[in-house]
Design brief:
This protein is about 85% helix and about 0% strand. By secondary structure, it is mainly alpha-helical. The protein has two domains: about 50 residues, no CATH class; about 70 residues, F1F0 ATP synthase subunit C (F1FO ATP Synthase, Up-down Bundle), CATH 1.20.20.10. Helix 1 runs antiparallel to helix 2. The chain is flat. The protein starts with a helix and ends with a helix.
């Protein structure tokens, strides 16, 4: 079974607990939830720092020629390129989401007054979606160089 499917009940219990906490103690609940979010973020950053500072994994019991070949081809640049690709996709997708949100709501407001501008409004929304495509292209280039 996938690890994420096993984590779904934990997330549901945590969300239910947060809702009940907010319903019962409104003012102090947000302080508790903010402190819990800061603690989880600190743990995630510590885990990220540990993962980035770790060396390559070495398998025991390998044939010496295979172990030497694996050691020669393993560099840290590939992992950095993958992280950079992930940042490029995430950043461009978040930027595209904000752009589509603002242009889409403005387009709907304009179309409610003048329905004949549908085509021009959708072009603007499509251009905003292009931001995510640019990030994906940069990620493909980075992965190709890794």
């Amino acid at each position: 079974m996938n690890l994420w499917f096993g984590a779904i009940p934990v997330f549901l219990i945590a969300a239910t607990g947060a809702v009940l906490l907010v319903k019962r103690w409104r003012k102090s609940a947000f302080k508790v939830l903010a402190a819990l979010n800061v603690a989880v973020m600190g743990g995630a950053l510590a885990l990220l720092a540990g993962a980035l500072s770790a060396g390559p994994a070495v398998a025991t019991g390998q044939v010496p020629a295979l172990a030497a070949a694996a050691a020669d081809t393993t560099t840290g640049a590939g992992g950095s390129a993958l992280i950079a690709a992930a940042i490029a996709v995430a950043g461009s997708s978040i930027g595209a989401a904000f752009a589509v949100a603002y242009t889409g709501s403005a387009a709907l407001a304009a179309m409610s007054e003048r329905p004949e501008i549908f085509g021009r409004a959708m072009v603007v929304v499509g251009l905003a979606e292009g931001i995510a495509i640019y990030g994906l292209i940069i990620a493909i280039i980075l992965i190709g160089k890794a």
